[in-house]
Write a structure and sequence with these properties.
Blueprint (H helix, E strand, L loop, with lengths): L7 E6 L2 H11 L3 E6 L8 E5 L4 E6 L14 E4 L3 H10 L9 E2 L3 E7 L5 E7 L6
Length: 128
Amino acid sequence: MTVTGVDFVSLPTKDLGRAIEFYENVLGLERGPVWGRSEETAVGAEFETGTVTLALIATESMGIEFRPHAVPIALHVDDVAVARAELESRGVNFLGETIDSGVCYQALFHDPDGNLLDLHHRYAPRDA
């Protein structure tokens, strides 16, 4: 067996409609399929990031206990400062100042369900 990639990363939600609104209209991600016969009965929705699909999952409707991600999912942006300012103008609150790790910039924030997300831009070459 050979793993050749990651098809999607799941994010739990208690309110799928609210999560769809956030990922589509606040983060501006391209919306993909909704899982279910209609949005009213949906259990999940997909959003494209350009490299990995984010799958929002209404966990409790699937018999899975809701627990938000406590470690960040890093969302690549070309300019963390610009992206942060845009999200702040849309009401997103960040956790502290932007981090400069010596290889990348990061700005941490939560989605409406408390999942930890990270605006991320690596500026150092990978072989450094």
